[in-house]
């Protein structure tokens, strides 16, 4: 599904350019779950940005589903983000004036094709059901707990049936118990064939992933499990 | 096509959600734009109403656009040719004008020369073809001089006279021995001011006539004038005396475009050794020059006010985009293209502009309705005035233009928000 080879990213615009990612190699297949752990500033979020096509690598090769997309133009990148990726962030980024269902539907109303209202609603309810909060569809974020809000964000990521789910510290703002529920919801997606790349500081959550990679000063290494 | 439609619908849906989420801000944008759009609507409405009023006055005086008028010297041969050519025709009406003095016999009228009532032209002298002139005799007395126009048919098909009181001449009945007269407002004013006997002197008649006033019309003229059926006047005139060349008489024929009367009449006039003066009425072109400059000045002022409104939308738009950086970055993260982000902002400002336009148009229409109801009787220009559709169109265009101008820079800002904003938050 995802093949990164020698990905390098250099942060420019400072007195001295700083290498954030240094020859990263990573391979993730459909249905696999991968945890990326590392200290703050180690380049975890930058790696996720490159994988999610928010950013372009300075060097290296990025192959997604057999296609080289290392230098893909922004218009195509937007289309690929819509068709292949789902994103979950530490902050939930729910729009407070919209209901849970409308927040999830936001990923469907993105200018990449058009779904009739009835079909849109069905897919939204299905996504909310997958994360166990279909009953909160009409609630606004202000009336939901942190865990519920994050699950709405996961439903938003899942509603387009992505092939890759990218989660950047999704449990960072949640207590342990709620965080576990959120990880459950994310792992549920891998059972349906979706690849999961999780950036986390939490060892327990990382341990639940199929593989763990350490990112230290831009260099990615796979941890060998005992 | 499907993709374009999807993007259009998406921007519209998200734009409406954005407006609903920020009602107060939208209202403030609308307030700043309202005066600008209102100014455009009012200027356009004022220009349209003034244009119509002006056009209406010109139509009263000169006739509807496209009417062909043929003038000719006040000669009896010309009158004979006219009467035989237009007799029984509905597409042509002739008017033969002459002096008429209504009032006490043997006195000079209060407005010699047919001057407007209250003015003294010092006229009254009659000059003949051999060059000698006669001064009017007798003292000034209870008589009013009018320009008497004898008509062969209903002239209102060419000049839309407005009936002020009474009725217009009825051409369907048999001619009356007491000629029925319809006065214009200036003539009516004379008869209101001066009590005169109902006796009319017309040069060439076999006896003084006893006219009957049947109505008063607004014919757009400032001189006293009376209209009479030519056959009712001819009853009192010997053959060949209908035209008096010595009192500045005139013969005019008004025709519908393409009327065959024109060819017949000009041939007859030419055969009589006389000339014709043909003129096509084109009031709209004539007034266009007068209105162009005025409209330009007022539209410039309205444009300035509109620009201030645009600056308001721009200001609020920029502030809103600044507040929604994370939302736009997130939308990009879920695959929304930059162009659609710009489209969302433009949709919001466009909808705001259109809502403002609707409010301004509604307010203007209500104000006009109130003005016509309250002041329609005292100000004829406001009587029966409808809100001109051109003003509505101008308001909508102003709203759209303001929405685009005010939303353009915020839209560019929104499209340029880096997607990594969500990762760094």
From TrEMBL, chain A:
Keywords, in A-Z order: ATP-binding, Nucleotide-binding, Transport
UniProt cross-references to Pfam families, sorted A to Z: ABC_tran (PF00005)
One GO location term (cellular component): plasma membrane
Coiled-coil regions listed: none
CDD domains referenced in this protein's UniProt entry, alphabetically: ABC_MJ0796_LolCDE_FtsE
Domain of life according to the entry: Bacteria
Matches recorded under PROSITE patterns: ABC_TRANSPORTER_1, ABC_TRANSPORTER_2
SUPFAM superfamilies: P-loop containing nucleoside triphosphate hydrolases (SSF52540)
Molecular functions per Gene Ontology: ATP binding; ATP hydrolysis activity; transmembrane transporter activity
Residue ranges of domain ABC transporter in the record: 2-226
Protein's recorded name: Putative ABC transport system ATP-binding protein
TrEMBL record, chain B:
TM annotation in the entry: 296-319, 340-367, 387-409
Compartment(s) where it occurs, according to its Swiss-Prot or TrEMBL record: Cell membrane
Cross-referenced Pfam families: FtsX
ABC3 transporter permease C-terminal domain segment(s): 300-418
Keywords carried by this UniProt record: Cell membrane, Membrane, Transmembrane, Transmembrane helix
A GO CC term attached to the entry: plasma membrane
A GO term for molecular function: transmembrane transporter activity
Membrane topology: Multi-pass membrane protein
PANTHER family to which the protein is assigned, alphabetical: ABC TRANSPORTER PERMEASE YTRF, MEMBRANE COMPONENT OF TRANSPORTER-RELATED
Family: Belongs to the ABC-4 integral membrane protein family.
Protein name per its UniProtKB record: Putative ABC transport system permease protein
Taxonomic path: Bacteria, Bacillati, Actinomycetota, Actinomycetes, Micromonosporales
């Amino acid at each position: 599904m995802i093949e990164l080879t020698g990905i390098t990213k250099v942060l420019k615009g400072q007195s001295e350019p700083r290498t954030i990612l240094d020859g990263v190699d990573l391979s993730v297949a459909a249905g696999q779950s991968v945890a990326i752990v590392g200290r703050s500033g180690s380049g975890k979020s930058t790696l996720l940005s490159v994988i999610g096509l928010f950013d372009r690598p300075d060097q290296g090769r990025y192959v997604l589903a057999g296609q080289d997309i290392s230098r893909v133009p922004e218009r195509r990148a937007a289309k690929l983000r819509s068709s292949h990726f789902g994103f979950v962030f530490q902050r939930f980024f729910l729009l407070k004036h919209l209901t849970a269902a409308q927040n999830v539907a936001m990923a469907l109303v993105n200018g990449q094709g058009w779904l009739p209202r009835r079909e849109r609603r069905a897919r939204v309810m299905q996504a909310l059901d997958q994360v166990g909060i279909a009953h909160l569809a009409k609630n606004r974020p202000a009336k939901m707990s942190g865990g519920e809000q994050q699950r709405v964000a996961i439903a938003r990521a899942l509603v387009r049936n992505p092939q890759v789910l990218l989660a950047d510290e999704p449990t960072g703002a949640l207590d342990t118990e709620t965080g576990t529920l959120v990880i459950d919801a994310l792992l549920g997606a891998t059972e349906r064939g979706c690849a999961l790349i999780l950036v986390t500081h939490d060892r327990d959550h990382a341990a639940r992933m199929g593989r763990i990679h350490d990112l230290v000063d831009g260099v990615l290494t796979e941890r060998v499990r005992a | 096509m499907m993709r374009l439609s999807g993007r259009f619908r998406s921007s519209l849906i998200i734009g409406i959600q954005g407006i609903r989420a920020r009602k107060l801000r939208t209202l403030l944008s609308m307030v700043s734009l309202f005066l600008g759009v209102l100014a455009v609507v009012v200027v356009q409405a004022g220009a349209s109403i003034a244009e119509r009023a002006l056009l209406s006055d010109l139509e009263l005086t000169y006739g509807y656009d496209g009417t062909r008028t043929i003038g000719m010297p006040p000669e009896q041969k010309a009158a004979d040719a006219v009467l035989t050519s237009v007799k029984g025709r509905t597409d042509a009406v002739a008017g033969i004008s002459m002096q008429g003095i209504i009032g006490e016999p043997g006195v000079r009228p209060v407005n010699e020369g047919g001057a407007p009532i209250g003015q003294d032209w010092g006229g009254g002298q009659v000059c003949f073809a051999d060059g000698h002139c006669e001064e009017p005799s007798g003292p000034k007395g209870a008589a009013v001089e009018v320009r008497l126009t004898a008509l062969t048919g209903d002239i209102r098909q060419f000049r839309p006279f407005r009936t002020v009181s009474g009725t217009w001449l009825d051409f369907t009945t048999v001619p009356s021995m007491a000629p029925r007269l319809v006065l214009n407002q200036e003539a009516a004013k004379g008869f209101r001011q001066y009590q005169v006997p109902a006796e009319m002197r017309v040069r060439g008649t076999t006896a003084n006539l006893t006219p009957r006033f049947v109505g008063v019309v607004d014919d757009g003229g400032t001189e006293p004038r009376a209209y009479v059926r030519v056959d009712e006047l001819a009853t009192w005139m010997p053959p060949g005396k209908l035209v008096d060349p010595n009192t500045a008489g005139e013969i005019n024929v008004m025709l519908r475009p393409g009327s065959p009367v024109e060819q017949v009449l000009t041939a007859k006039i030419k055969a009589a050794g006389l000339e014709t003066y043909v003129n096509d009425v084109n009031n709209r072109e004539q007034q266009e020059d007068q209105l162009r400059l005025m409209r330009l000045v007022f539209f410039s002022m309205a444009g300035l006010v509109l620009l201030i409104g645009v600056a308001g939308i721009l200001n609020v738009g920029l502030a809103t985009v600044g507040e929604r950086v994370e939302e736009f970055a997130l939308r990009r993260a879920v695959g929304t293209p930059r162009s659609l982000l710009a489209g969302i902002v433009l949709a919001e400002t466009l909808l705001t502009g259109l809502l403002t336009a609707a409010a301004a148009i509604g307010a203007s229409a209500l104000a006009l309705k109130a003005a016509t109801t309250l002041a329609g009787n005292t100000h004829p220009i406001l009587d029966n005035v409808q809100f001109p559709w051109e003003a509505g169109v101008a308001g909508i265009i102003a709203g759209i233009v303001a929405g685009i101008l005010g939303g353009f820079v915020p839209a560019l800002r929104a499209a340029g928000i880096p997607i990594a904003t969500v990762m760094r938050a």
